[in-house]
Amino acid sequence: MTVRTRIAPSPTGDPHVGTAYIALFNLAFARQHGGQFLLRIEDTDQSRSTLESEQTIYDSLRWLGLDWDEGPDVGGDKGPYRQSERSAIYAEHTQMLLESGHAFKCYRTAEELDALRAQKQEAGGFSALKFSDLELPADVIAEREAAGAPYVVRMHVPEEGVCTFNDMLRGDIEMDWGMIDCQILMKSDGMPTYHLANVVDDHLMEITHVIRGEEWLSSAPKHQLLYKYFGWDMPVLCHMPLLRNPDKSKLSKRKNPTSILYYKRMGFMPAALLNYLGRMGWSMPDEREQFSRDEMFANFDISRVSLGGPIFDQEKLSWLNSQWIRDLSEEEFVAEFVKWGLNKETLMPAITHIQPRVERFSDVVPLAGFLLSGMPALTEESFVHKSIEKEQMTELLQMGLWQLEAIRNWQKPEIQQRLFALAKIEGVKPKDFLFGFFVAIAGTANSFSVLDSMQIIGPDMSRSRVRHAVDVLGGISKKGMKKLDKKYRDVSAQIEAQLAETQE
Ligand code: GLU
């Protein structure tokens, strides 16, 4: 048997450090066994998937030194490797399950499903929807079918009993079938859900080991059942512990930058970031902290993964990065530094703002150095404004930050629309409103368009700087936050409604 592992990221938003973490362990496992590692793009959610996001996944994984043997961009003989190009395969497999009686068409409406769920919840016990809940009389089905009503295809799951499945790191795990819905396999628009597409693809792509994040543990019973329905062998499952914020909560962009692009722009060396990800739940046999990708691969043993939630800590990462930086010769330092920031890719997006504003090249760094730096050096005085008091400034920045967190595709028009809508609701002139953002992002109000600057430095770097600004202003008390949060809910609803209108 040739070991084959994969990652299956969804191309939505920025490339996540969690994707790189899982990729690293899959690649290490494949390399250790002389096997193959492949990359599959799970883009069945067409409304959220973008080609730009897909490209940034490729670029940032390669930047880190993670390479795949098969994938949408490199080919391979088990393709296509993009789920949106595999619709016919999923339709065929859905049909197989319908014919074998392991799946059924479900004509239940959204209202009926809500009512069924409410009923089950009220009755106490498990609230998962089973065939016995969903079943409709034959004449109702016929009627709905004749009227061309939309339907989904669901899988049958046992009504009760216990499901046992095995996880490489955890051994046997038991889950009550009562907790598990008759999972939708095919949506009413004919697109497969994650569960169907993932199982079919893993089988057809001959994946032997599924190494993925712990958040997918609860999907395992459904997947195991699907393998059984199809009569296929199931790959070995291995669920990696989730990366956590220092407060132990799940790593999230609200508390921590999660985009690989942020770490790149912040000037972490790819080898150091990869090294740090290798230390998430894993250690070298000699416990040494600094090691290269190849040293990790040479010593890899997945049973050394420990299940306590590994903490992704910026300070620890910075320390490790400093070790890598110190190990460079002066020549190498210069080469790495130039490669990082003084290159075409980084400079081009900013040149249209810089060129018309400088008289000499020596004016460039004072004008645009903030694009290449981390957090600007700020004090409370930096935010003194003629008409906005400190407290209001802090609140505007915080609400602006929440708006920035709501953006999925980081583009200037949406950043502008959201921030200006917020300014209007708050009754503040756009120019006054943006003052705090200028200071937060560029360190001064005398800079070129802050909206363009945010577009250039990217979502995580922008959010981190605004968060930093709120901190510099002394933050918001617990009580104040509660009040602001309440007010913001209304504000946010208004902005979402406005955005929905303009998108129509
Ligand atoms: N598309 C899923 C994700 O985004 C894949 C999960 C899996 O590896 O099965 O993480």
Helical coverage, percent range: 40-55%
The chain-level structural class is: mainly alpha
The DSSP helix count reads: 21
Average pLDDT for all residues: 95
Description:
The protein has 504 residues and is mainly alpha-helical. Helix 18 packs across helix 20. The strands form 4 sheets. A 3-stranded antiparallel beta sheet has the order 3-4-7. The protein contains 21 helices and 9 strands. The structure holds glutamic acid. Glutamic acid binds next to helix 7.
Quick structural summary:
The protein is 48% helix and 8% strand.
Can you lay out the helices and strands and say which pair or pack?
Blueprint: E1 4-7, H1 17-32, E2 36-39, H2 51-64, H3 87-99, E3 103-106, H4 110-123, H5 131-134, H6 138-146, E4 152-155, E5 162-167, E6 171-176, E7 184-186, H7 194-204, E8 209-213, H8 220-230, E9 236-240, H9 260-265, H10 270-278, H11 293-298, H12 314-326, H13 330-340, H14 344-354, H15 364-368, H16 390-405, H17 412-425, H18 430-442, H19 450-457, H20 459-472, H21 478-503
Parallel strand pairs: 1-2, 8-9
Antiparallel strand pairs: 3-4, 4-7, 5-6
The protein binds glutamic acid.
List the defining traits of the structure above:
504 residues; mainly alpha; two-stranded parallel ribbon; 21 helices; 48% helix; binds glutamic acid
